Amino acid sequence: MTIFEKSTRGRKGYELPEYDVDKLEIKLPEHLVRKSEPMLPEVSEVDVVRHYTDLASKNYSVDRGFYPLGSCTMKYNPKINEDMASLFANLHPMQPRETITGAVKLMGHLKELLCEITGTDDMTLQPAAGAHGELTGLLIARAYFEDKGELEKRKKVLVPDSAHGTNPASAAMAGFEVVELKSGEDGCVNLEELKTHLDESVAVIMLTNPNTLGLFEKDILTIAKMAHEVGALLYYDGANLNAIMGRTRPGDMGFDIVHLNLHKTFSTPHGMGGPGSGPIGVKARLAPYLPIPVMKKTERGYDLDYNLPKSIGMVRSFYGNFLVMVKAYTYILTMGNKGLKHVSDMAVLNANYLRAKLSKLYNASHDRMCMHEFVIDNEEFVKKTGVKTLDIAKRLLDYGLHAPTVYFPLIVHEAIMIEPTETESKMTLDTFVDAMEKIYEEATTKPELVKGAPYSTPVRRLDDVNATKYPIFRYKK
């Protein structure tokens, strides 16, 4: 039931006292004056509290349970991060510069830490999320080639067929032509395929490493060399950095532009549209094109540098989503060097534990060691039982578990993409395995049971197609 359906005429939460001062008459322009009263619910305070508490109880989050959403790194967010962010909650970006010295210092030090983690020379913290960071990185590449007088010939961006969908979208938005690279049998970039496309018409190669199959690109040094030999740039999609953080650095692999998702890898909350943060790190030759302002270290500490004549300009208001940066900064300092390495170790260990357990029943897309995530290929399973990947995902909800990512990457038919992250215990992983084993048994003996799932949720299966085609954004009586 919506809050509007709980509305009762005349009901109020509270009343303000009568004015005891002269009313200030303000004449609004006619075109700004409402022609009718706004449609607002008339409810008491307790009605509102109970309504939203009820909605919250129906929502699933990583604080409530296991959230193995492949390629999204839904890791637990330590509450100390929120405590630290709350210390800065009353700052305003339009305060005088001398009143935000601490915030500038935090951003400057965070930039240095992220440059060290990624192996880059300079960085912008401005982008609001991952895809926004991708676009920023590609605009930097565009400005770089334009400055060199090569933009007319550098029209192409090469993107593997296993890439995140934002990669080709960002490249197209930046004005480039997208060329798809077919993966090899091993799930990685096919060097022979790459050779057929790689020439001086290529501006950027976009890669995720490990890729979306959870596999490390073993030929990455060769790929970097091939790209640089024709003058192209290598772009790192940082969505999967959680698998290698502290163990190896994209900059050392040969990547020229590196994007991060602070709202994934560095534990700040992820999902529901934000807020996110997608910093972009670059090698020194690309630093002149970073968005302004950049954090610059001076003799007095850190300052905001607007003096970048070749900058692509601001890509977001002010400095970015600052409180997300505070949470990431807190996470890095509390984890430390050894802690960040341990994160990667445990993320890879947990993924391989699940892969080994589930491979006894389900078919892994690639039967070898994975990194932080892996993909199950259910194509044969569907043929055998008639139970689809979506059915398995819906049935997991009845076991009190959030479903993994399904039907991605697109190169694996009937894919289930599982990423447990490092924060989950063996007990939690075993609970997930147990549920997947029971669903397998149900699918082979009582397939209609699985096809009808879920049974325990407030809403059964939604009509996804009509919801996309005909979205309803406001309540109507």
From TrEMBL:
It is an enzyme of class 1 (oxidoreductase). The keyword tRNA processing does not apply. Its EC number is 1.4.4.2. The modification N6-(pyridoxal phosphate)lysine is found at K264. Residues 344-444 form the Glycine dehydrogenase C-terminal domain. It catalyses: N(6)-[(R)-lipoyl]-L-lysyl-[glycine-cleavage complex H protein] + glycine + H(+) = N(6)-[(R)-S(8)-aminomethyldihydrolipoyl]-L-lysyl-[glycine-cleavage complex H protein] + CO2. SUPFAM superfamilies: PLP-dependent transferases. GO terms for biological process: glycine decarboxylation via glycine cleavage system. Keywords: Oxidoreductase, Pyridoxal phosphate. InterPro entries: Aminotrans_V_dom, GcvPB, GDC-P_C, GDC_P, PyrdxlP-dep_Trfase, PyrdxlP-dep_Trfase_major, PyrdxlP-dep_Trfase_small. GO terms for cellular component: cytosol; glycine cleavage complex. The keyword Oxidoreductase applies. GO terms for molecular function: glycine binding; glycine dehydrogenase (decarboxylating) activity; pyridoxal phosphate binding. Residues 141-273 form the Aminotransferase class V domain. The glycine cleavage system is composed of four proteins: P, T, L and H. In this organism, the P 'protein' is a heterodimer of two subunits. Belongs to the GcvP family. C-terminal subunit subfamily. This is Probable glycine dehydrogenase (decarboxylating) subunit 2.
